[in-house]
Amino acid sequence: MSLSIPFIPRLGKLATAIGLGFSLLAGSLVAPSAAHAEGEIRIAEQFGIVYLLLNVVRDQNLIEKYGKQEGIDIKVDWTQLSGGAAVNDALLSGSIDIAGAGVGPLLTIWDRTHGRQNVKAVASLGNFPYYLVSNNPQVKTIADFTEKDRIAVPAVGVSVQSRFLQYAAAKQWGDQEFNRLDKYTIAVPHPDATAALIAGGTELTGHFSNPPFQDQALENPNVHVVLNTYDLLGPNSPTVLFATEKFRNDNPKTYKAFVEALAEAAEFAQNDKGAAADTYIRVTKAKIDRAALLKIIDNPQFEFSVTPKNTYPLAEFLHRVGAIKNKPQSWKDYFFQDAKPLQGS
Predict the structure, then answer these.
(1) Residue 22 has what DSSP assignment?
(2) How far is it, in rounded angstroms, from Cα 50 to Cα 237?
(3) Are residues 269 and 60 in contact, defined by beta-carbon separation less than 8 angstroms?
(4) SS3 for 226?
(5) Pairing of strands 239-243, 120-124
(6) pLDDT over 80 (residue 20)
């Protein structure tokens, strides 16, 4: 499998810059923009197959299709960011309307906007196992990481990968040690982290990844799986889409068109993996072998679905360790409940 990603010869300064640039609610990432009328939607996605539903929506112009059924022409704007902190910044600044990120960033922003902007999830993007991989032969479990190791995550302390790592640390050493491995993490986008891990010779020895990047890394015999999130939590929905209550209330036709588009995209991707693979390559322009990509997404553990699965254990954990102040009583507290309510968890 071949994926076009740049190699980073030295990560220290780069990682520091990225980490500083992605601080939550920094306010300087994007400039606030004026509110807009019904018929416009701005969507931010990140890297990986987990965003394939958005690729399908974009490729087939599904939002525009359902907008016409609502009697409006919808202008759709797409942007790509890296890390949940950057995505949260963009949403709160008013620069985007729909944020694509992990459950970790969702719970962070849900907690911080509770009773104010009231950010909640719109839908899941599916169920996928995430792997923590390493090129250090001494690292067999998370207990083997030392101060000599660095673990790449999309956003330190905020990304769902960071939260999964904290969940694993609490399971290993107890809740009081949930952030024990945070000091080893650095913020690096998935493509760059994958390239560095494969090449070796840098301070980066671990990467909490997602598909297809984790699969590409594992083609290198020096890279192995340290942690599988399905072993940690069972099948779960790591990546979601979320929005402010104001956008949902002020743009009911646009919002409905988006939800309907997602549902059609999920059915398409789940039922025709070949066409889904073609869509991913066409939209992302990824330099990846089609057969290799199809093998990844045809994994029986993959499920393209808008229905969230098994997100609440992470929410309960984050409240228990004090990472979020507000305790959700169920997954329904941080997901919007629409006309066709999701049957999630």
Answers:
(1) T
(2) 10
(3) no
(4) strand
(5) antiparallel
(6) no
342-106-211 Cα angle (round to 5): 85
Of 33, 150, 48, 54, the closest CA to residue 96 belongs to 33
Contacts of 147 (CB under 8 A, 6+ apart): 183, 184
Q: Which amino acid is at 88?
A: N
pLDDT of residue 32: 43
> Under a CB-based contact definition with an 8 Å cutoff, are residues 233 and 170 in contact?
no
Tell me which DSSP letter residue 177 carries.
Answer: G
Nearest CA among 105, 102, 93, 97 for reference residue 244: 97
| Alpha-carbon distances of 233 from 64, 169, 193, rounded to whole Å | 37, 13, 24
Per residue in 79-113, pLDDT (tens digit) is 998 888 889 999 999 999 999 999 999 999 999 99
- In this structure, what token pair is assigned to residue 320? 């228990």
Tell which residue, 142, 8, 162, has the closest CA to residue 83: 162
Max alpha carbon distance in the chain (Å)?
Answer: 60
Contact criterion met (CB below 8 Å) for 251 and 41: yes
